Amino acid sequence: MIIKNVSLETVCGYTSKLPKNTKPEIAFAGKSNVGKSSLINALMNRKALARTSGQPGKTQTINFYNVNDELYLTDLPGYGFAKVSQKEKEKWGTMIENYLNSSEQLRAVFLLVDIRHEPSANDKMMYEWMVYQGFHPIIIATKADKIKRSQLQKQLKVIRLGLNTEKGAILIPFSAETKQGREEIWDLVDQILAS
Ligand code: GDP
After folding, report:
1. Which of 51, 84, 99, 113 is the most buried (most CB within 10 A)?
2. Which atom in ligand 1 lies closest to the alpha carbon of residue 144?
3. Dihedral of CA 10/20/81/142: which sign?
4. For residue 125, what are the domain limits?
5. CATH number for the domain that contains residue 56
6. Nearest atom in ligand 1 to 178's CA
7. Atom 12 in ligand 1: which residue has the minimum CA distance?
8. Domain count, the chain
9. In terms of DSSP H, where are the helices of 78-120?
10. 10 Å Cβ neighbour count for 167?
11. Whether complex ipTM tops 0.85
């Protein structure tokens, strides 16, 4: 994918209607601080278009980035803030569920997990949720530059086991620092869009 132009086109809050986009959407989910903004920025060749680390209590939104007027990268709100109230968590859940359920253009979902850690209970829940909604989530193991090469296979295994991934599930190590995995992700998106 050659990036010609990108823009943040739509920001949806809890009460907003989802946009009726006519181009395909690719969604990204993950707990806050996993590196989701860094990944989306790296995919778009931008330094800081996608928001960086949200703060607890910050408005949770679904952001749609228009790429080349060809597709949207959808940035789902990060989860896992311990300090967020139960009510906020419920709002978050409703928003994501509604999006996964009702977007007519959603073609693939990516779930980001930190390569260094065992997936959290929230990661597992999110993965199961996506599978339940009929998706075959693609997993991205972020911050790959933070582990030694010799640890890579072991950590990927920890992630597969932790999430109890579907047979044949795709798992891509990624680093926003080295851009490892960027081409692989775009190739995959290209394939998905062509299918
Ligand atoms: P988000 O909350 O999921 O959007 O996470 P961010 O993209 O804001 O990243 C959270 C923190 O992790 C920031 O300090 C980033 O600089 C750092 N980070 C993100 N991706 C990487 C990566 O691939 N390698 C390293 N070393 N740090 C990263």
Report:
1. 113
2. 23
3. negative
4. 6-194
5. 3.40.50.300
6. 23
7. 35
8. 1
9. 86-102
10. 4
11. yes
